[in-house]
Specification:
Strand content: 25-35%
Structural class: alpha/beta
Number of strands: 13
Largest sheet: 9 strands, mixed
Helix content: 25-40%
Radius of gyration: 17 Å
Distance between the termini: 36 Å
Number of helices: 6
Bound molecules: 1-O-pyrophosphono-5-O-phosphono-alpha-D-ribofuranose, uracil
Length: 208
């Protein structure tokens, strides 16, 4: 499935602040939240609505609404937690799973340290959130775990994607659609995205 890269002046503006090394933790978190909201909004473009009847102050009308019980967000710890408030602004009643993965600094291989998702995950559309899609190793492992639990419709939202990461996810899981605020140039020799924004977890949690 084709990756969706948000193409909007406001997104470019917010990303410029996010990327700057002068931006502090508070503003960094706020912008990750705002961009997460935009990404989730875009990812719901294909959402199926259910018919319902409501009453305006004037008349009854037939309309449609989202069944929020059909969604689960799954942040990849720890940086993915920075996106949760933003996506919950869009679907406040979604359930939340957690996948703990850290990338070995030498091998760049992800290591799992936590996994807990809603029991009925197979009946939900799953939206994985992680600010960075670099080599794609963490995303692929997370998707594998969620698929093993029976989830059929999975999307992946990130702030910045590298071409290498998009290619890997698309190759291994062509049915998982990626939504990114930006597509960057490449990875450096340490697996960091260039130009990127640095270490997303460190910048969100102030552990630099
Ligand atoms: C970062 C990021 C992704 C991963 C991306 O997490 O948040 O999870 O790296 O890299 P990949 O695409 O090459 O797998 P990190 O492992 O640094 O952990 P953290 O969120 O705890 O800082
Ligand atoms: N993880 C990050 O936090 N930043 C990168 O550039 C790559 C992986």
């Amino acid at each position: 499935m084709e990756a969706v890269i948000l193409n909007h002046p406001l997104v470019t503006h917010k990303l410029s602040i996010l990327r700057s090394k002068k931006t502090g933790t508070k503003e960094f978190r706020e912008i990750v939240g705002e961009l997460s909201e935009f990404l989730c909004y875009e990812a719901l473009k294909d959402a199926e609505l259910e018919e319902c009847e409501i009453e305006t102050p004037l008349v009854k009308m037939k309309t449609k609404r989202l069944n929020e019980n059909k969604y689960a967000f799954v942040p990849i710890l720890r940086a993915g937690m920075g996106m949760i408030d933003g996506v919950l602004n869009v679907i406040p009643n979604a359930k939340i799973g957690h996948i703990g993965l850290y990338r070995d600094e030498e091998t760049l291989e992800p290591h799992k340290y936590y996994y807990k998702v809603p029991k009925d995950i197979e009946n939900r559309e799953v939206i994985i959130v992680d600010p960075m899609l670099a080599t794609g190793g963490s995303a692929v492992d997370a998707i594998k775990m969620i698929k093993a639990d029976g989830a059929k419709k999975i999307k992946f939202l990130c702030m910045i994607a590298a071409p290498e990461g998009i290619e890997r996810v698309q190759k291994e899981y062509p049915d998982v659609q990626i939504f990114a605020a930006a597509l960057d140039e490449k990875l450096n020799e340490k697996g960091y995205i260039l130009p990127g924004l640095g270490d997303a977890g460190d910048r969100i949690f102030g552990t630099i």
